[in-house]
Specification:
Length: 361
């Protein structure tokens, strides 16, 4: 999901996962396959059936190094979360371009190392989920470079940079891409890119496919877990009825279960989220559904997702989009934004994630 001003009511855009993900084995307590470099608290040892995660995106170079970083991480951990995802972002000008670059909105490497260390000290596992966005706004899913060879060469430079950083900092899971539907059909090129990532990072890998993209991704066999940004519309009009929303999830869950079985991999919701606006469940991917308060609808949607997937053996959990914006960077008022912080949806998370052994727990 990208920032509203950067994509103007994005269509299921992320801003990514870290997938605050799980390992491909589904065991939250499996050893990290490389030195984590932690110096502080550790995640608790309770067994859970899936990931409990929250995304903390960055919109500026020094966000992750700001004084607010530690506060946000403590707040996230207090919900019962065990994972946090970070989303360093590079940019290209147009969907047909082949060159990626950093901008003033790209998280600085030092700030990223800083917040990963703080997360580990707060007892949170981490996922790095690098994003590509467009300087002048638009949907990253529409990126279709005129020169695919040049684009993939530059993309490999970008993604392996973060793979090395992830390895150096003990990041527990890594996403090789997010919602790049315009290129994700290029199976051979993506397989080579994934191989280059594996040379540098030895932990579990995923790709965060949009909910309308995942079935056409040809390279799941190269990854450890299937990542989906789960922005399925669940209603044709505003509703605060969790039972109705759970019912809407049922055919989706059946389809996902069958897909997981065919691919021999579990499915992680690398993103899921709802603005606290009336009608958010009709278009979960939109930052601008309405200007009317929708706290109750957001809370119902959180509850319905966790109830619909709780205990399903093929489901690896969820990373919610997103925690608070950084001071002075939010383009949507907090009362209407995706964050559950200080809203009824946060209490829903606390109830679910306090349940030992639950997939939200």
């Amino acid at each position: 999901m990208t920032a509203m001003g950067r994509t103007a009511a994005v269509f299921a855009a992320v801003a990514v996962l870290l997938v605050a993900g799980c390992s491909s084995s589904g065991d939250e307590d499996a050893p990290v396959p490389q030195d984590s470099g932690r110096t502080g608290g550790q995640p608790d040892d309770r067994k859970v059936n899936g990931m409990r995660g929250m995304t903390l995106p960055s919109w500026n170079t020094d966000d992750y190094g700001s004084p607010q970083a530690g506060t946000y991480l403590r707040q996230i951990a207090a919900t019962g979360a065990r994972w946090v995802t970070f989303t360093p972002t590079w940019y290209q000008d147009r969907v047909t371009d082949s060159a990626l670059r950093t901008t003033g909105e790209t998280a600085g490497d030092d700030s990223l190392r800083h917040i990963i260390r703080l997360a580990h000290e707060a007892g949170l596992k981490t996922m790095l989920k690098p994003h590509v966005d467009l300087v002048k706004g638009g949907d990253r899913a529409e990126i279709r470079p005129r020169d695919p060879d040049a684009w993939f060469a530059d993309y490999e430079r970008f993604i392996t940079h973060y793979a090395r950083l992830a390895a150096d900092t003990g990041v527990e899971q890594f996403a090789v891409g997010t919602e790049l539907a315009g290129t994700s059909g290029e199976g051979g090129r993506w397989s080579r890119t994934i191989a280059a990532v594996r040379e540098r990072y030895k932990g579990p890998l995923t790709y965060a496919a949009n909910y309308d993209e995942y079935r056409s991704v040809p390279f799941w066999k190269d990854l450890d877990v299937i990542g989906i940004d789960a922005y399925w519309p669940l209603a044709d009009k505003a509703t605060t009825d969790p039972a109705r929303l759970r019912q809407a999830w049922q055919p989706i869950a059946e389809t996902l279960a069958a897909f997981s079985a065919r691919q021999h991999r579990k499915i992680l919701f690398t993103e899921a989220g709802y603005v606290s606006q009336r009608g958010s469940t009709t278009a979960p991917y939109s930052w601008t559904v309405s200007k009317r308060d929708g706290d109750a609808e957001q809370a119902a949607a959180y509850d319905a997702l966790l109830a619909a997937f709780d205990g399903k053996s093929w489901w690896e959990g969820v990373c919610w989009w997103m925690w608070d914006d950084w001071p002075d960077s939010g383009e949507t008022a907090k009362r209407l934004a995706y964050t559950p912080h200080g809203k009824p949806a946060e209490q829903v998370l606390r109830r679910w994630w306090a349940k030992p052994g639950s997939s939200g727990g």
